[in-house]
Description:
- The chain has a three-stranded antiparallel beta sheet, with helices on one face. The chain has a three-stranded antiparallel beta sheet with strand order 4-5-6.
- The chain has helices at 33-53, 61-70, 78-85, 95-105, 111-133, 155-167, 171-183, 187-192, 221-229, 244-258, 265-268, 270-280, 285-292, 297-304, 311-318, and strands at residues 3-6, 13-19, 22-27, 198-199, 204-207, 215-218.
- Helix 6 crosses helix 10 (244-258), helix 7 packs across helix 12 (270-280) and helix 12 (270-280) packs antiparallel against helix 13 (285-292).
- The chain is mainly alpha-helical.
- Helices cover 52% and strands 8% of the residues.
- The protein has 15 helices and six strands.
Amino acid sequence: MPNLYKRPGSDVWHFSFTVDGKRKRKSSRTTDKRLAEDIAIKHEARVRRAVVHGTETVLTFAEALDLYVSDGKSTRFTVPLFDYFEKWKVKDITGPEIRKAAKIIYPDASPATWNRQVITPARAIINHAAEAKRLPKISVKRFKEEKKRRPAGSADWLKAFCKAAKKLGMPETAAIARFMFETATRVSEACRLTWDDVDLQHGVAFLEKTKTEPRKVFLTRAMVIDLANVRSLHPTLVFAAANRSTIKKRIDKVIKEAGLKRLTSHELGRHGFATEMIRRNGVDVATTADHGGWKSRRLLMETYVEGDADREVIDRVFGKKGGS
Length: 324
């Protein structure tokens, strides 16, 4: 039976108990003694079960999500997952269950949406907790997506966009468009960029918090000039915008004014960067991945590298042979 007590100067009940030779102490967060007793008994039973049968028998998805968010991970797409899996034990959440959840949460969505908004974040949350608690990680089969050629940003598109943005008195929007296109930066990463992260003298910027790991990006001369011209607009944030929705509104406004084909921030930025590097300029995949912050080179290979099925390539490599 847990021991209930109050700390000096506090009306909140705390409790303590010993499990496997180790003393455990915790606050009940209530001033109601009967409720505190109930909380203490349930918590002790849970801890004992974890000691005897393993942490995986008691860890819930809600707790895994709390660990994930506490470590500064993205909360995007997590609310529907929390609503669905809130009371589930992590050990009961299998790959098939996650795939089933995707179709229930988003019944009319495409496979790409199921992958992006359910499978990817659910797997990340569970595996993050698994790594912290030294538990087995989970693998989830992705839904097969229909491959579509997405539009991508280009140097010509960017030139027209920047001209229109500056004409509208929106130099910061021209600057963020160039920054995303030339550095493969995600819009959320660009929003977080502060002037402390930028070294205009040496032409570099440091992305401290990214989807994968911190990285340094190199700034072109045109990029340095654009940034220098917006230095006075905001004391802290480079692009004077705290969230993606603000950037989206600004970009859409410029696109409409310029009469350009509409691109999302991803199509303009990372997709445009990779397309410009690999397809338009023949830069190798390894170099593109390093400069663009891609952890998986396979993703770049599958998305941007296309084979040559013409006879010409065989003749060029092996030469035209006469009869044997």
